[in-house]
Amino acid sequence: MKKFTLLFIIPALLLMTSCKHKLSYPVTKKVDTVDNYFGTKVADPYRWLENDTSKETAEWVKAQNAVTENYLAKIPFREKIRETLKKRWNYPKYGIPFREGPWYFYFKNDGLQNQSVLYVRKGIEGTPKVLLDPNTLSPDGTIALGGISASHDGKYLAYSVARSGSDWNEVIILEIESGKQLPDTLKWVKFSGMSWQKDGFYYSRFEEPKPGEELTAQNKNHKVYYHVAGTPQKSDRLVYENPKFPERNYGAQVTEDERFLILYESESTTGNALYYQDLTTKQAGFKPLVTGFENDYTVIDNAGGKLIVMTNCKAPKKKLILMDPELPDPANWKTIIPERDDVLESADLAGDRIISTYMQKALSKAFVYDLKGKFLHEMVLPGLGTLTGISGKSGQNIAFYGYTGFRYPTTIFKYDVKENKSSVYNAPEIQFTPDDYETTQVYFSSKDKTTVSMFLVYKKGLKLDGNNPTLLYGYGGFNVSLTPNFSIGRTIFLENGGVYAVANIRGGGEYGEEWHKGGIKEKKQNVFDDFIAAAEYLISEKYTNPQKLAIMGGSNGGLLMGACMTQRPELFKVVVSQVGVMDMLRYHKFTIGRAWASDYGTSDTKEGFEYLYKYSPLHNLKKGVKYPATLALTGDHDDRVVPMHTFKFIATLQEDQEGCNPVIVRIETKAGHGGGKPTTKVIEESADTWSFVMYNLGMEVK
């Protein structure tokens, strides 16, 4: 039963008291909704905010944004930060070149273009020309490229576009030589690659959702199709579906020589099954390579009729194996590169070599092997940082890679595989002096005595007097690793005396699958304990104090923010949650949320409900508590972590908050989970976020 009990909304007023800004928030109506979980009744008074397309929700969003804009507009240095970021952002940025057929492709952004432009050149020294400029697709830059894939002969380019940040994609095809767009457009594509075989490609899609449910309805019945360039989508050949398991996802990959079609099957973000077809024979249907979802398997390529596969099966830090499709039993697998102490992140073929990328204490290392797994040499990398990707091909001696660090803007290198020599291919020039700062890596003990690592970045000559404004960033989930990276927005904070910290907490992948599993399901509290211990370390070592400490995280990291601020509100002065998962009892009921159950579990089981209810941010807010100054960010087109998470959390927090710390929400229009966001919106969001952080930490902007 749903009964409206309070007035929906009243105009927001900004009142001045003894606080700097004492906010009056929109009063959000409540409904009489109660769920019964295994005998525990849980109220959900803001359930109506789950309807993201209703007029009522739209009015609520408008009122909340008005309060937020009014608050941010009063920050004296907001415009100064915005203008500084805009100037500093204005430098050419390059992507890693890659080759198909005679063409080399690469992305470039001149500086402030909303979307990066795809260039192509014939041969490595050829004259570059614009192949695809996404900035022409929409005046505000909110139509972005989702992905690209060129046919192996270099005849066609398939590219996907996403509108307003949604995960839904449309796929369009170009003739590369002429630049002519073909008439066929593929719709309702999501969580899909485009893998070419001859003049067509394999892709995955869902059925068209009902009108009004495009951004919230559960995505079920994922199917794989084959599309021939120049034909209508209705003619696409259905390659695979599995109606017995409508919640499973499927993806297709063709090996470089177009011999094998690989089918990936998954139930969540962890673990997958593998199947294959030999496209050179009349093989009917798919044959299994690996069944079950206990481990991860990624096919690198075909080598002489056998598949090079990266896996964590019996190797938590991953290894490389050779798998014979005709003899797929694990007893017949041959290890090419065995597991080592460092975490294997990726393996790429270049020339007649395998370039394997590892994480060593959350820093990148790369080693080169021959195709039989014999170690040849280590790649010499520019310093302590992160490889952002490697682009190479079998039989081609030249490869490219990207490299970045906290003080090192992303730089593109050209790599001679045989000579093991790197040279700078594209280096950025920015208004920032890296030598004025230093990066250190420290270690601390968590609640259960587990040792956790953390990166610290700050100006040289930092005084450990306990008064430095500090921002602690974390994620802690889904095997995602936080490694050094460069951020223009962060430079504002650093040059004004801020300390930036990144904690490599459990749930992530920095130390392998065991590290990941140490922070999932019933062990999720370890993630929060690690992050809280990181904050306590920063305080005990005199980097900062609770009145000078801000925390930030996005998506699963937004969940981390919500859990830590509800468990230890006195420990932090500022919290920034970006597109966070806040309602742990209902997250799996929207779009692709069910796939996160491998990390979270669900409230559908008694055990799952009990541990989720203990830390779910929405359900652990308490009236009358002095919570930190809080800025939550979300997008109205986020169909991954749907905005209801942020809406319900903020409505509850505004009601419960005691004291003067502001609680505001920034709801971006025509934006989603973050992917494809135009530069204009990125700069605006970055300026508002850093303004909020620095203002509430009592910083001055020089």
Instruction: Identify the CATH architecture of the domain at 438-696.
Output: 3-Layer(aba) Sandwich
The chain-level mean pLDDT equals 93
* Lateral arrangement of strands in the main beta sheet: 34-35-37-36-38-39-40-41
Helix content: 10-25%
Defining key terms:
single chain, 702 residues, alpha+beta, eight-stranded mixed β-sheet, five-stranded antiparallel β-sheet, 10 helices, 41 strands, 34% strand, disordered N terminus
Please specify the SSE layout and strand pairing.
Elements: E1 14-15, E2 22-23, E3 34-37, E4 40-43, H1 55-73, H2 78-89, E5 93-94, E6 98-100, E7 103-109, E8 117-122, E9 129-132, E10 143-150, E11 156-163, E12 169-175, E13 181-189, E14 195-197, E15 200-205, E16 223-228, E17 237-240, E18 249-254, E19 260-266, E20 273-278, E21 287-290, E22 297-303, E23 306-311, E24 319-323, E25 334-337, E26 343-350, E27 353-360, E28 363-370, E29 375-378, E30 386-391, E31 398-405, E32 408-416, E33 421-426, E34 437-445, E35 451-459, E36 470-473, H3 488-495, E37 499-504, H4 513-517, H5 525-540, E38 549-554, H6 556-567, E39 574-578, H7 597-600, H8 606-615, E40 629-635, H9 644-656, E41 663-668, H10 679-696
Parallel strand pairs: 36-37, 36-38, 38-39, 39-40, 40-41
Antiparallel strand pairs: 1-2, 3-4, 5-7, 6-7, 7-8, 8-9, 10-11, 11-12, 12-13, 14-15, 15-16, 16-17, 18-19, 19-20, 20-21, 22-23, 23-24, 24-25, 26-27, 27-28, 28-29, 30-31, 31-32, 32-33, 34-35, 35-37
Helix pairs in contact: 2-10, 3-10
